[in-house]
Amino acid sequence: MTARATAPATSGTARTALAPAADGAPAGGSSTASRRRSWQPRLVVGLAITAFVVLVAVVGPWLAPHGEHEITGDPYSTAGVLGTDYLGQDVLSRVLHGGLSVLVVALLSTVVGLVLGVLVGILAAYVGGWFDEVVMRLNDAVLAFPQILLTLLVLSTVAEPTMWLIVVLVGISHAPRVARVSRGVALGLTRRDFVTSAEALGESRLRIVVREVLPNMSGPLLAEAGLRLTYSIGMVAGIAFLGFSTDPGAADWGQMINENRLALLVQPWGVLAPVLMIGIFAVGTNLAADGIAQLTSKGGDR
Amino acid sequence: MTATTARAAATTEAPDAVCTVRGLRVALAAGDVDVVDGIDLTLRPGEVVGLVGESGSGKTTIGTALLGHARAGAVIDAGEVVVDGHEVLGLSDDDVRLLRGEHVAYMPQDPASALNPSIRIGRQIVELLELRGIDTPAGRLERARAGLAEVGLPDDDAFLDRYPHQLSGGQVQRVALAMAFLPRPKVLVLDEPTTGLDVTTQTLVLETMDRLCEAHGVAALYVTHDLAVIGTVADRVAVVYAGRIVELGRREQVFSAPTHPYTRALLDAIPHVSQARALAGIPGRTPQPGNRPSGCRFHDRCVFATDACATTEPVPVELDTDHWARCLRTDELGPWDIDLGRVPDAPPSVERDVVLAVEGLNVSYGRTQVVHDVSFDLARGECVALVGESGSGKTTISRAVGGLHRQWTGRIRFEDHELARSSRRRTGDDRRRIQYIFQNPYLSLNPRQTVGQLVRRPMELFGLARGSQATDRVVDLLDAVALGPAVLDLRTDRLSGGERQRVAIARALAAQPDVLVCDEITSALDVSVQGSIVELLDHLRTQRGIAMLFVTHNLALVRSIATRVDILSAGRLVESGPVVEVMEHPQQEYTRTLLAHTPRID
Amino acid sequence: MTTVRTHDPAPAAGPPAGPPATTTSGSSSARRSPATAWTLWAARRVGLAALTLWLVSVLVFLATAALGDPVKAILGKEAATNLGRAEQIRQQLHLDESLWDRYWHWFGGLLRGDLGTSVANGLPVGELIGDRVVNSGVLVLIAAVVIIPVSFAVALLSARHRGRRLDHGIQLVVLTLAGLPEFVVGIVLVALFSTVVFHALPAVTISAGGEGPWTQPASMILPVVTLVLVVAPYVIRIMRSTLLDVLDSDYVELARLKGVPERVVLRRHALRNAVVPAIQVIGLQLAWLASGIVLVEYLFSYPGIGASLVDSVRNSDIPMVQTLAMIVAAVYVVVNLVADVLSILCTPRERTAISS
Asked: Which residues of chain B approach chain A closer than 8 Å at the C-beta?
């Protein structure tokens, strides 16, 4: 069962940053170089959107007209800019307060997933042989779990999840997918003559991985990171949306959706405001990831 | 740009021309940058015209323009192409498609990727006949069989039912040839059809092509970078440089009385199998579209150039019947003699100081043994060539010597001791003193490091130099490989293939090696670049007394670079000895076959 | 315009990348008859899928049984006071046995079709989920039936208008949708079509007991549209880039230069070679649907296994969770297996590699 490149959107990254100058024309390299430096609208727009949402989440608590738990009116009233929520708390203030926790958890879990995945992927590619076989077989088994399922399984026996548990679970669910991508990229690289050449010179294995292999993976890995962040935010918020909260009552975009979703008809902003923030952030990171993938791939317009 | 539209004075308008190209210009769609410009060419039935040029010269563009096709991003924007009485360029897409196949056919550069991988070859061969409704199904099948037989392939059902991946390289080529000939075209464009084939297969394909062209009266335009192949198959030769035909004439004329300085420089750059030559590269880079100089496009690399060459665009000058060159100074260049580049062969018997001896080498990949009991040696300051066709085991042997492949038995003696199998188990000194240079400089240099870092690393690793001393030595080495300190802080993606290979050589030299293992290091490069790399290697060998193991498939190159040669076939050593003896008096049938199939210019 | 082809360092130019392809598969395979070869190949594929499923079962068991305390999770604060109930649960889940025994107990039951009993209401799991599996299956099937042709059409449109305005527009929409989590898409749709802007469609699925939700087609629309909007962008992107690769290939160029009309080039030369990547991405996305329905079903209160899973997780109904997880994983493994087999059967190179 070869579960192929997990997330289809990563296929752009499969065409690695340093596709050999297949054109063979001696000066072919210079045109690739100029393309690399050229302006990448998707990356710029994506980063701008992402930065905007992060800014809102970071400075939001200072801008919020009301406190996180402050009751400002009747439940689901129209008081304030975006109305009030199920307890009568100000929605705008809750939105401004509730971004940081989601973003931090999403970011941390992405980092966990990337570190684990890259480590496993590179090891499998570089060590090869039976180790590679076994690791990738296990990887396939984990891959057979849809990402959110793994988290739900564990949540079924843990009475009160902590933030760190969510970070680790979401991170672990990313790891096999990242591992598959980084193994693929690393495998392509370890077969390159420049790695062989370093081996022939007698460079240490660690140095080969750190100096020869990793720098050439940065493009695909950055794109993968952007993609993973996109999925992280969806999963972290999704878990809260399903009602598994680490801190009941706290302002949190995912949790807000769950709290107010039954009143979508009466007071839509209680749900729509956090939904839109999550959506905008995800679109931003996904655009940025795609931009990076385009920059580092040869294709240009794929 | 008035001169470009001026008709070539000497392009005799042959009344029987089956294809005429006039003032053809293909430009990049994005701007006013031309890929090729002012192309005039005629093809007569039954003749093969060779179109030769280096990468970026625009030769393939000219070839596909005959079919009214420009690759994505380019447009044919001026001139006329008349094929078999039809003006090609004014036609709509659909009408052009109708001309293709039956009037003008195309043989692709790399048939292995140009045949559809998911359609059986029998179906692919008859596809066009089927679409045009020519003949009955049974009749088409008969034609396909006859076509396959004509190119010397089996014509049974089993063969027709094969997929392209089930054929060998030579077979794929011949299927493509059969496919191109089947609709009986009047004009055939062949785009480097034999690049990458072994010489024996190449000969077979070329002979088949030649025979079919003659038998069916087809005019062929043979596009290639390989002058030696042109010298074998072409009746007339057109030399392309930077989007212009700079010289056109009958084969004898171009090869014995080349006039354009570029043609002369090319001929000086290529090795001959019949004589040892001091190969000379052409300085500078082949200019890509958009970077081409004004005036004569070759003036900035031309040794004969005057100030006028930079400003005046030369028009074709008739030299002889059917022979013209686009040069301002044709009268002042003087005669040219191919033997000027000739040098004596390496003397067969000199005192040899053996540094490396391979004894009874067997190499395996997995359970398959690919090299059987091979022995040879290498002396100080000597270049030994390891020659063979693909699959002969030549690269495998070089990798075993370089410590890149460890599954071997036998002995490799290096001076007074035996080498360990893999580089990791060898001593640091052994690793330093034997340096390996890879075939493809696009793959062998880490794209994330600067030239300075790349060349400096072996010195640091082996403790030869550090700090500013190392920097000085890097500059010296770059100088030695004719690159100059300007490239120091560049990454390799800014360099051309030839420049990259020079960096790879400089990196190998940084370790102060005694033995260089060169694995086909010029085969990915243009001939003019190959000439200069060979020149450089020869210089290093004589100056520094470095021994070289030179792996190649090119026998002609061996004659110019090596002292001794070892001929390999299917993993076994067939013949070995001093180059001049093996080349002049081959003892083995296999060597004779190889030599016979190697294209020669004289 | 390439004069010098950089030799592929792999098999053609000597064997640095390994021995010739024929030798890797071992010399013995050459002598096997095609029928035997195919049987062995099929057995290997199925065996690997079974192995993966077994590993999945271990993971499911470990995740649900080894990490937390089910009794505490089920009873909450009650666990300390209601000792009788705690003991009952302990008995039902065989918590006194060793981890190893519990696993074999559960796994054996799974193989025999005995899925255990729900902790929440004491009914057999098999009975509880039967209808729900069918409901989810219907939802996924309808979504798939919409996704495949829509994606094909849009990708083809985009590829044929490559680099032009239409292509850019499609790419922008597709890229935006591809980043959105499924519940965001679902909620925005609900807001648009059933609550805030229009009131055209029901926001939740209300199924009268025993009847399938498809008896009320209107309530199926939003869940299906959500799934389509989430999945189709991926399929479209992959198919577009596959089509572009194929259209740029040497064989398509040769077909054009050979004089083959464009529509035949597209149909016979291009699409045929784009089928395999399409199968793979569709397989992958169908497999993804098996879990994508979790959030979507929950959002629309659709009576399928996804919503059921969320409820069971919340109730810590471990036998239910385990069974549902195994079903989702099995769907994933089987769909992938089918996609793999199909793509091999559609690739002559792979096919002949097996039978020879």
From this structure: 55-56, 285-286, 288, 402-404, 423-424, 426, 428, 431, 436, 438-440, 442-448, 457-458, 461, 492-499, 511, 524-526, 529
**Rounded Cα distance, B309 and B300, in Å:** 9
- E-strand stretches of chain C: none
Chain C residues with CB-CB distance to B222 below 8 A: none
Burial level of B123, CB count in 10 A (0-12/13-18/19+)? middle
Q: Measured between beta carbons, which residues in chain C are less than 8 angstroms from residue A173?
A: none
Alpha carbons B581 and B39: distance in angstroms, whole number: 45
Per-domain residue ranges of chain A: 55-119+146-184+217-300
Q: What share of chain B is helix, strand, coil (3-state, %, to 5)?
A: 40, 25, 40
Closest CA to B386 of B550, B192, B572: B550
CA distance C184 to chain A (A): 6
Residue C180 has pLDDT above 70, yes or no: yes
Q: Which residues of A touch B445 (CB under 8 A)?
A: 194
Question: Who among A144, A234, A282 is closest to C56 (CB)?
Answer: A144
Which has the closest alpha carbon to B34: B305, B243, B333?
B243
Say if domain A55-119+146-184+217-300 classifies as CATH 1.10.1400: no
CA distance A127 to chain B (A): 15
- What per-residue confidence (pLDDT) applies to C9? 34
Nearest CA-CA distance, residue A187 and chain B, Å = 14
Phi and psi, residue C94, nearest 5° = 55, 40
Strands B219-224 and B187-191: parallel
CATH class, B354-450+512-597 region: alpha beta
Q: Give partners of C (≥3 CB pairs < 8 A).
A: A, B
Closest Cβ opposite residue A26 in set B285, B423, B447: B285
Residue A9: predicted pLDDT = 35
CB contact under 8 A, B431 and A200: yes
Chains that touch A (3 or more CB pairs under 8 A): B, C
* Max CA distance (Å), chain A: 75
Structure tokens at A18: 């340093």
Q: Summarize the confidence of residues A212-240 as an average pLDDT.
A: 87
Pick one of 3.40.50.2000, 2.30.30.240, 3.30.70.100, 3.40.50.300 as the CATH number of B4-103+185-325: 3.40.50.300
Which of the residue ranges A47-56, B362-371, C234-243, C280-289 would you say has the lowest mean pLDDT?
A: C280-289
Instruction: Indicate the residue of A152, A264, A283 with minimum beta-carbon distance to C313.
Output: A152
**Nearest chain C CA: its distance from B518 CA (Å):** 14
The mean of the pLDDT values for chain C is 78
The yes-or-no answer to whether B4-103+185-325 and B354-450+512-597 have a common fold is yes
CA distance B53 to B59: 6
In this predicted model, what pLDDT tens digit does every residue of B237-287 receive, in sequence order?
999 998 999 999 999 989 888 999 999 988 888 888 888 888 888 887 778
pLDDT at A13: 31
pTM of the model: 0.80
Distance CA(B390)–CA(A285), nearest Å, equals 48
